[in-house]
Amino acid sequence: MINIAILGFGTVGSGVYEVLKKDGGIIAGRVGDEVRIKYIVEIRDFSDHPDAQLFTKDYSAVLTDNSVSVVVEMMGGIEPAYSFTKDAILHGKSVVTSNKALVAEKGAELFALARENGVFYRYEASVGGGIPVIRPIGTCLAANRITRVMGILNGTTNYILTKMIEEGQSFETALADAQKKGYAEADPTADVEGHDTCRKIAILASLIFGKNVDYKKISTEGITGVEPEDVEYAEAMDSSIKLIGMARIGEDKVFARVSPMLIPNDSPLACVKDVFNAVMLTGDNVGDVMLYGSGAGKLPTASAVVSDVIDIARGISENRRLDWEDGDSSYVTPLSETKVTCLIRSKEEIEDATCIDIGIEGEKGYILRNFKESDLEALLKREGVIKCIRM
Ligand code: HSE
């Protein structure tokens, strides 16, 4: 018997409960042992729940119960999730999480602590929800030098952009629609300002690079500034605007960025619509691989969480390198040291650029290739220059 405790009975926590209830028999067959929920730690009252006896507010009872081997942290945020995770590890329990904020902020420390204590800290669900991406990087793609990862890592913003592209909606209307459908939070800042994508690309870049890529060093621009005119330019260039988290990974340098980008319509990333997510990985041997699916939601995310539990329960986690070391970030290339290819919308002519006139009064588009980021700021301050969209 593998006893687990779920911390937090929100959307994903209750999804984990549902998956284990519904598919417990199949999972037991795959593990070779029953995976049983022994506790659900939750401060809210669930005395009417059919399994009310599982609920407790007392986390210390979980910590001191030696029969519990895996804690499933579904709380989100940094605290108290961080302290609860450390306590579980220090009590010899593996931890499975979907908490991208905590993995991006404290991952390196928690991996080291888990190693010292002979347990595991696993986070498949923290990036791409139900899409398998963390383990494929560490296992199926292990024969590759992965040089680039780029992805649509946030369902809410992809839904909003899809509405803007396909129905000509404004950002505000599309956001209100996403909120009505329950995709966007009441406070959608983390999604629309790109912070959620930033944590996720930091996790992928750290895993591939092997050292912590500090999310605070990742230049991040969300979609609040995307206008219907940008969508028109994209259409004219046979492209689609997508919020992209990307990282280029070299031998001893890594660069990551989050921004709206013009993606050519013949790229599979352009076909990722609505709330779907996708991660495109480029390996030196495999070439491009795209992983696509539901990036959020109760059962898809629970699917990834339970897969980590199964991995630990089967005892196959130790042969998988799925973590990274801490580091001083000197290897993270600042945006200013890179070059950009982009579309500049401007009322004045931009020299040495390819001009695109799509008939918007008073302005034209100018494509700049391999332009120094360090010169972009000055260019954007020039009179008549409206904005830059990356390609
Ligand atoms: N708010 C996130 C999204 C949820 O919209 O993709 C999954 O991390």
Describe the structure in your own words.
By secondary structure, the protein is of the alpha/beta class. It folds into 3 domains: 2-130 and 299-319, NAD(P)-binding Rossmann-like Domain (Rossmann fold, 3-Layer(aba) Sandwich); 135-294, Dihydrodipicolinate Reductase, domain 2 (2-Layer Sandwich); 336-390, no CATH class. 35% of the residues lie in helices and 26% in strands. It is built from 12 helices and 16 strands. The protein has helices spanning 11-31, 59-63, 81-90, 100-116, 134-138, 155-167, 171-180, 189-192, 195-209, 228-236, 298-314, 373-381; strands at residues 2-7, 35-41, 55-56, 68-73, 94-97, 121-122, 146-152, 219-220, 239-249, 254-264, 276-283, 287-294, 339-346, 354-356, 364-372, 385-390. The strands form 3 sheets. The chain has a 6-stranded parallel sheet, with helices on both faces. A 6-stranded mixed sheet has the order 8-10-9-7-11-12. A hairpin with a 3-residue loop joins strand 11 and strand 12 (287-294). The longest helix has 21 residues, at 11-31. It is elongated, with a radius of gyration of 22 Å. The relative contact order is 0.14. The model has no long low-confidence stretch (mean pLDDT 96). Bound molecules: L-homoserine (HSE). Residues 129, 154-156, 191, 196, 295-296 line the site of L-homoserine.
